[in-house]
Design goal:
With about 100 residues, the chain is mainly beta. The protein is built from one helix and six strands. Helix content is about 15%, strand content about 45%. It is flat.
Length: about 100
């Protein structure tokens, strides 16, 4: 019950938050290559400068070690005017991000 109350408070706080310019961003580029089976890829860009690209595929198909491997990157403008970019791989070893600003 306590968890439900805490969750409800978080939802209420999020709903009361003021709308920022990011909340008004529009998608300006969107490309999706995914037929539901096999590898996939997508990219998108929003009017507030956020850019995302990702591709994924199964590796070791049909074996005991079959795993999804995803590679991608995203970037966004920080409040300080710097464009931050994260490049990542996610696979059986977990999510592995890299970026100049990540320790």
């Amino acid at each position: 019950m306590k968890l439900f109350i805490v969750a409800a408070l978080f939802v209420a706080a999020a709903m009361a938050a003021p709308t920022t310019i990011d909340g008004q961003a529009q998608i300006v580029v969107q490309n999706i290559d995914n037929i539901g089976t096999g590898p996939y890829a997508y990219e998108s860009e929003t009017s507030n400068g956020i850019v995302q690209k990702e591709q994924g595929q199964l590796k070791n198909v049909g074996t005991e070690n079959e795993a999804l491997e995803v590679r991608g990157q995203y970037s966004y403008p920080g409040d300080d005017g710097v464009i931050y970019t994260i490049t990542y791989i996610a696979n059986e070893l977990g999510f592995q991000p890299q970026g100049a600003h990540i320790p």
